[in-house]
Amino acid sequence: MSLVPKVVHRRCSSVAPPGKLILCHLLCQLSPPLGATWSGLRCKRPCQVLKPRGPLPSRLLLQTSQNTTTQTKATEMAPASENEMDTARKNQQARHWLVTSPRTASNLLIKMLNLDEQGVRPSHQGGYFFKPSVFVRFPLLFHDGPIDSWAQEDRVAVAKVMQSCLETLQDHLEASEAAGNTIFVKEHAMFVSNPSIESHFLHPDHPPEWRSPVLEARGMASQTRSALNITALPDEFLHTWTPTFLIRHPALMLSSYYRTCLDHMKMAAAAAAAAPTAATGPPKRKKGEPTDLEMSMKWIRTLYDFYADYFSREGKAGPVVLDADDIMKHPTQLVPRYASLVGMDPAKVRLSWERPSEASVKCLLPNERRMLSTILASSGIDASKAAGDIDIEQEAVKWKEEFGEERARKLAAWVRAAMPDYEFLRARRMRAE
Questions:
Q1: Per-residue pLDDT tens digits for 256-267
Q2: Which domains does the chain have, with CATH numbers?
Q3: What is the rounded CA–CA span in Å between residue 400 and residue 396?
């Protein structure tokens, strides 16, 4: 009989005997007798969710071609049907997803919602679960050409890190559901994008032959990705969320992002110059000038289109859109209403707060301090940060003085290209009453 190697489970370090591995986060949810007789395994520490979640998907078994016992068990434990999954999804706790882009004042909204007092499970900066994947994906996208030209191990590494990010997010969801926490997670739309589509966006003359795999979400009867879904996530997982799309005028959003990129370049250069010895190993690819990928609203607009289409087919109203301008100019009318909409207490919304201590600010990484500089220096809402009736042509003159002629030209082009998507979403925004 052909045997598979022993495998150590990624969450609890249990070791599986050959041919009999069941993913431990599912095993721990089964009753002990079934778990004991099924695989002979017992977790070394309990998983976060201990209640059963229906039939065990047979695709989670590592089988050998001649292991008839395991194959028989797999047949007995058939995957849940589509109807069973639909019923479970309807009974599932609401999942609210704040979909953003960099520099859209999302930290201001998070601060105003007062998540710590709203029963939301803590997470770093309110979410960004897929941020670790950016440090693997973006250097390859920006420096290694079209995705078909990447080394195979690099493509695999990207898929693995994105799957790992999804596992971390799902751990967070399971822990939130088990504790009865409100689920409210923030993520930049471009953080969850499909790497193959990102590559094609940057290299339109090189449509990729290699397709990024669909990430595997837990408890899904199927894992598919439709034409409107340009993320790495399956449709079925996206359907479990209720999204809110946060936007800001591109003239402010993109110019602010450009400043942070240039500051990051300066910090990286200063750190390299201050290093006592030269680094060994392959050279680290530094963040350079912002790219078309980062300076586009394609990612958030297309994700909106995906949800608008899905909600329409489900007979629901379109997704919620918030504009940073409205949050800054009409905070008392808008933010408490939004808090109620996402299951939070509007009475706990705050319009002012104490500045963080110097010690807590020092705990942040330099690039985090830069990205959070506005909110860290604030004690309330600064309405002067709103775009109002901003004139792009007048702003372009200021950019020329600030960034130089060539950078100002690129920035103005990015802003103008983003305006149709911004105006489309703004027309559908939640308005102050």
A1: 999 988 876 665
A2: 7-78 (no CATH), 93-426 (3.40.50)
A3: 6
